[in-house]
Amino acid sequence: MRNQWRLLLLRNFSISSFQNSATNLQVLKVNRNYSHLTSFLNRNVHENAFNSVIRNQWIRSFSSEPALELNNKEIDQVALTDILSKASNNDQIKKGLETIDISISHDEVLNVLQNLDGNPEIAWKFFTFVLETEKKILSSKSYNLMLGILGRKDFVQQFWDLVEIMKKKGYGVSKGAYSKASINFEKEGLVNDLDKLKELRAKPDENSIERVCFRVCELIRENDWDEDIQKKLKDLNCSWSNDLVAMTIEHLSVHPTKALMFFWWVEENPSFKHNGVSYNAMLKVLGREDCTDKFWRIVNEMKEAGFQMDMEVYNFVMERFYKRKIVKDAVDLYEFMMGSSVKKPSVQDSLFLMRKIVVSKNLDMELFSKVVKLFTDGGNSLTESILYSVVKSLISVNRLQECGKILKAMEEVGFVPTKEVYDRIIFHLGSVQRSAEALQFITEMEASGCNPDSRTWCSLIHGQCVARDLKNASSSFRNMLEKVGVTNAGYAFEVLMSGFCRMKKAEDACKFFTEMVDETEFRPHRTTYKMVIEKLLVVGSFNEALSLIRLMKGNGYPPYLDPFIDYISKIGSGADAMRFFNAITDKKFPSTSVFIRLFEAFFKAGRQNEAQNCLSKCPTYIRSHADVLNLFCAQKPVDLESSAVVA
């Protein structure tokens, strides 16, 4: 038997037969103007806000996110509506549709009608155009989709006219179209039309495609496929149309082998020949984990017959492959579609596949390289946003160390990484404690002529601080000074000091701070001094904070007084105050205003005794200063004030 012979062929069918001929596939294409993914980078980050802004930018750009969904780009409804509303004949409609890259195919008709669901007038005009120019591509599904759109008060006449057309073609009203129309009829008070529709549904034409399909499917489901079942199918005396065959195959989706046997059996009927509708229905059923050999067999048969795979079917099968983690077949199917001369997967679909490859159980770089080559050979360009999306996926499976391989594969097909790309990858390698790989990236940058600068090293140091790897971050800063000098090292140093302070290691920060200033020509920013001094005083490290005041003076900055005055006035002593006064000036004592500020702070904190103690240690010219005397005289004695409260 021919069918048994075909099954034997399936056992020996190799995917290589598809791969060897993939470049010759002819598949319908729609030239859509897909927008590239927006860049995750803000290219104009202000230097003075580097630490806070760049951190937020980096973490947002590479944070783990849910996987992308397969997404068919929606048609420009405004342009489509404008074209159809203004066109006065079919030629104008055809030319207008060409301007927005809409070709007339079964798949595209369904797509257009779905987009025009809320505009029955325009949808009907489009459907009429297809009916008059390309009616062979319309199926029962197309008619029922249009019928559902027309099921409303202002289009009742067109609704019933279309029902009559469908009856003549043997099409019944589908459950979806019936449900949609009946809801609208009831809502809009069309009682007679609702009753008529219910009667039509209750007493379907026994010769309609739907009823014949029901009988055929019932027969196939309840019997094993053998000569007896084939005889019973012949005895039904059906007029086999592609719509009937496709509908039968779809209803046999839970019995894929039986659906395939029926697909081949009906082909033996001399009056029947498969077309794109029936082929696509068969592929949709076979696109599953346990039928991949059969699926590729039909793909080849369809190709040889000159038909194309619908994008709807492609997306449906790809989603199944993804769910079952059949990545190899997903890549082969992508190759099939990218090899078409007309219709290709979108940029989003291509990116989705790249991300699926990198999160697979075992990263197959051969598959990834194959996809990016197919992508670029198809006229697309790899962008930074595509790279960043792939990196996100690597992060989600803790596989960022493979980023170098991904970047190399993209470079091999023309992607040219910018310095910003390197910086961002280096940051994240540091953030997952992959400092060795990050340093390798820096070496590769140098080799490619993209010289790392202070921002590159800052990226690494920032990443290492995020990973709480202060040892390597400190080492990287030293390397930075050796490689690029001290001129622009201030931001990286502030990031490093912030990392120390976040980990409550302010004293270690002070030690490293002192080492860098004393042993090199490096001059930290004043903001960095202020940050570390504040953190030191918070933990009570008064002596260390004073040491930074001395370094601050040496770097030519005015002393940072506020946190010291606040600290001494609340928990310090008169002796601490004198040490502070000595530290902030090269003279013997600072100006009188500094003394007055500290005395005022003591009084505000309710520490009059400590203010007196501090005053007793001050030089004579301060003790006798009129403003100082007035300040102290204005204060009530502590013992008298306490007595007044008791009284």
UniProtKB/TrEMBL annotation:
The keyword Repeat applies. Pfam families: PPR. Keywords: Repeat. InterPro entries: BIR6-like, PPR_rpt, TPR-like_helical_dom_sf. This is Pentatricopeptide repeat-containing protein. GO terms for biological process: RNA splicing. PPR repeats lie at residues 275-309, 525-559. The keyword Repeat applies. It comes from the Eukaryota.
